[in-house]
Structure to design on (241 residues):
């Protein structure tokens, strides 16, 4: 990664096609505030409570420490969140060549995402699995790409992980062991980073991608973020490392 907003986007597109061992996990203000043990939630329904959800916090912290080749982290940028950019840089241990923007799919790159992401997935000829809220309308996504499997995440992802942690780890182990050369797409809030790390440790012969809120208009029939609306300030922002 060069920490260039557009160059890194196309580099990830290339890796999705060519690599059989890739992870792209993204941490921004939500993850940073959890690591700081601040009470925080968002419009997607998850809520982290200070001093209460410490199991989740610990697992999230550990998920940001991977230094394996092929494991790429997206972090907050200086133009959108300079404080958390510096904070997250101090936490991750990997080399700069494995770091890029948490916003890589969004803001001014969202147009590129729509133009290239689905075609890239099809061109890769890999099986595709989606892991997101159980409320997702995956049939809408299947009109664009062939989805082989669906891993549903019910309710508040933080409570779900802490309550059913061992079961979920067992499920992830099964899914990872049963797959090779498969693309796993994750949209499960801050739990995504934990899920990617867990599956990577089971089987590195897959592609694990954090897609965040990019597919909300497709999966949930709603524009949940400013960048979804063409003409918005964020839709035109080219992020700077």
């Amino acid at each position: 990664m060069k920490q260039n907003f557009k160059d890194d986007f196309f580099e990830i597109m290339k890796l999705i096609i060519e690599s059989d061992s890739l992870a792209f996990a993204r941490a921004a203000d939500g993850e940073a505030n959890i690591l700081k043990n601040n009470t925080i939630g968002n419009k997607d329904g998850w809520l982290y409570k200070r001093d209460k959800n410490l199991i989740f916090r610990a697992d999230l912290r550990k998920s940001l420490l991977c230094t394996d080749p092929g494991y790429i982290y997206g972090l907050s940028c200086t133009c959108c969140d300079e404080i958390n950019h510096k904070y997250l840089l101090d936490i991750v241990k990997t080399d700069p060549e494995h770091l890029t923007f948490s916003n890589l799919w969004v803001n001014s790159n969202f147009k590129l995402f729509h133009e290239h992401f689905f075609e890239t997935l099809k061109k890769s000829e890999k099986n595709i699995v989606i892991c997101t809220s159980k409320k997702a309308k995956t049939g809408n996504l299947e009109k664009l790409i062939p989805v082989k499997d669906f891993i549903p995440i019910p309710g508040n992802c933080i409570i779900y992980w802490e309550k059913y942690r061992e079961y979920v780890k067992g499920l992830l182990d099964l899914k990872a062991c049963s797959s090779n050369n498969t693309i796993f797409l994750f949209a499960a809030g801050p739990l995504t980073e934990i899920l990617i790390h867990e599956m990577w440790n089971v089987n590195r012969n897959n592609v694990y991608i954090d897609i965040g809120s990019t597919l909300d208009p497709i999966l949930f029939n709603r524009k949940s973020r400013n960048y979804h609306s063409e003409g918005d300030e964020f839709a035109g922002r080219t992020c700077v490392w």
The radius of gyration is 16 Å. The first strand starts at residue 22 and ends at 27. The chain has nine helices and nine strands. The longest helix spans residues 157-177.
